[in-house]
Protein: Iron-containing alcohol dehydrogenase
Organism: Novipirellula rosea
Amino acid sequence: MMDNFDFRNPTQILFGEGRVADLDSQIPADARVLVLYGGQSAQRNGTLDEVRAALGKRNVVEFGGIEANPRFATLMRAVELARRENIDFLLAVGGGSVVDGTKFVAAAIPFAGDTWSILTEHGANVTAAVPFGTVLTLPATGSEMNHGSVITNDAVKAKLAFMSSHVYPAFSVLDPTKTYTLPQRQLANGVADAFVHIIEQYLTYPVDAMVQDRFAEGLLQTLIELAPRLKEDDHDYAARANFMWTTTWALNGMIGAGVPQDWASHMIGHELTALYDIDHARTLAIVLPSLMNEMRDAKREKLLQYAERVWGIDTGDDASRIDQVIERTREFFEELGIPTTLAAYDLGSEAVDAVVEQLESHGMTALGERQQVTLDVSRRILESAL
Ligand code: NZQ
Ligand code: ZN
C-alpha cells in the first residue's frame, strides 16, 4: 500500500524558447538582486547578457565562480556579499551546481550560527530563506523544481545534502535552447543522473502505486529513447525540450510521493565525488549496476517489473531476467560514454576502504529503502564495481 503523503510543489515553471525575458514579471521591480553563476559558460553563450537585459533597471549585484560540486567556502563569500549589499532576491543562472549553491546561499543569509550545520543537520534547522529563481542551463539534477541541495566542503572532505521547504525556487526558466552549448559529456551526465533519480524512487519494493510506477517507467523510457537523439544533433529543439522536462520530472517530488525510496547509490556516489572529484552522474553509473546485483533478492519484484515494462525483457526464468536487465542497464551507461567500474578511474581496493570509512563517518550505515545497505553491503557493492 502507498504511504500517506502531502504533495505540494510551489515552483512556477516558465518553459520554452525566449522565456528569459519573462524574468521581469517574476521578480519584484524594487528587488535588490544577486545573480549567481558558475564559470564561463553562461557568459559565453549569451545567457547572462539576456538575464541582465531582462532585469532592466533593478539593483543587480553579480557573483560568479561557483564550481561544479559547489564549495562551501565559495558560497560563504556569496553569503557575505549578499548580507553586505542587503540583497532580497537571488537568481541562479547555470546547472545544478549553481542552483544548489544558490539554495544554500538563500538559506544561509538569514541563518544565525554556524552555516555548515545546515548541511550536517540536513536542513532540519533551516527556518527561513531569501526568495530566489533559476535560469537552468543544464538538464540533469531536478534542482530547479525541488527542495534539495548538495554542497561540498573541502576542509572536511564532505559532500552533504540538505532539504528544506524554504528552498523551493519561486520560479525556474527552462529554455531548451540554453542547452545547445552543452558538451556531450554533460549531456550524457544529465541523462544518467536523471535516470538514476527515477530508479532511486522506483526500484525498491511494490506498494501498488500505479500512477508513480507508470510515470517512472514512462520517464525512463523517454530517456532511453532520447539518448541517441541527443548524441546526433546539437540543435534538435524537440529532443532538448523533452530532455529538459524529463529531468525536471525525474526529481520534482511527483514520482516519489507515497512510495519507498532508495538513494543508496547517491549516498555512496557522493563519497566518491568528495574523495576523487568524479562527476556526480558518473559515480552513479559505477554504483548502480553493482547495487542492483547485490540487492537482487530485496528488489526482486521491482527488478522483474523494470525488466519487462522498461526494457521488454520477457524471456528466461526470474534470475536470468534480472541478470539481463542489470546488464542492459550497465550497457545503457556505457553507450552514453560513461564507464561503470572504479578501474576506469584508476581506483582500486584502497578506494573501497576510503569510501566505506567516509560512509561510516557520515552516519551512512543503514541506507536504502529498508535500511539494509549496511557498511558491509556498501563494501560488497564497491568491491564488485572494481
Ligand atoms: O561552470 P560553468 O562554466 O557554467 O560550466 C558548467 C560546469 O562546468 C557546465 N555548463 C552548465 N551549463 C552549460 C555548461 N556548459 C556549456 N553550456 C551550458 N549550457 O557544465 C558543468 C557541470 O555543471 P554542474 O552544474 O556541476 O552540473 P549538474 O547540473 O550535473 O549538477 C551537478 C551537481 O548537482 C548535485 C550534484 O551532486 C552536483 O553537485 N545534485 C543535486 C541534486 C538536487 N539538488 O536535487 C540532485 C542530484 O542527485 C545531485 O546530487
Ligand atoms: Zn543525482
User: Anything to note?
Assistant: Residues 41 and 94 are 8 Å apart (CA to CA).
